[in-house]
Amino acid sequence: MLGNIIASLQIALNQSAKIGDRIVYNDYLCHVERINFTYVQLRDWDGTRLIVPVEEFISTPFENWTMKEPKMLRIIKLKCAHNADVDALREAFDDIVSELDKDELGDPDDAKVRVAGQDVFGKDVWFALPCADPNTSWDAACKAREMIIAAGNRIAEERGIDIFPEVRPAEAA
């Protein structure tokens, strides 16, 4: 109990998180709703509330999006087939960036497509989406991801090539 009280004082003094901050905690995108002496209450993007003991909260690394510059790059990671046409995906992504809400996006010149890795299943293609505000970046990235997948499927159909790998469950295990 005393450890939790000291931990909550530590949060108050170093201000690593404040009520209203948007954070990523244990892969949950959350808002900090309440900081008590014994627990921190977080609200997940879907409305679920996480109650985390203060000692556990301060000993677990988290990302505070509110403390960053308002502009940020959201990285959308997709696994693509070895023979996927990255240039076609790049063109499609440029079109997608121009279609998204301008108020949610940062500088469109910061939008990039990179092959960041490769393994037996295919290429790791990363799409860097410039966002103006961390509070809307998650929604913008989800919209962009849906549009990228749809564009990839269209490209595959039109050109008769694979964009996304066909993986059987036994291979994924």
Structural account:
The protein has helices at 2-14, 54-59, 86-99, 134-159, 169-172, and strands at residues 22-25, 28-35, 39-44, 49-53, 62-64, 72-80, 112-119, 122-131. It is α+β, with helices and mostly antiparallel strands and 173 residues long. It folds into 2 domains: 2-66, SH3 type barrels (Roll); 72-166, 2-Layer Sandwich (Alpha-Beta Plaits). The protein has a 5-stranded antiparallel β-sheet. Strands 6-8-7 form a 3-stranded antiparallel β-sheet, covered by helices on one side. Helix 3 crosses helix 4 (134-159). The longest helix has 26 residues, at 134-159. The N and C termini lie far apart (43 Å). The model has no long low-confidence stretch (mean pLDDT 85). GO terms for molecular function: mechanosensitive monoatomic ion channel activity. This is Potassium efflux system KefA.
Note the beta-strand portion: 25-35%
Fraction of residues in helix? 25-40%
Shape: elongated
Q: What is the CATH architecture annotation of the largest domain?
A: 2-Layer Sandwich
Low-pLDDT windows of residues = none
Backbone structural class? alpha+beta
Mean residue pLDDT: 85
User: What is the fold-level CATH name, i.e. the topology of the largest domain?
Assistant: Alpha-Beta Plaits
- The tally of beta strands, per DSSP, is 8
- Evaluate the radius of gyration: 20 Å
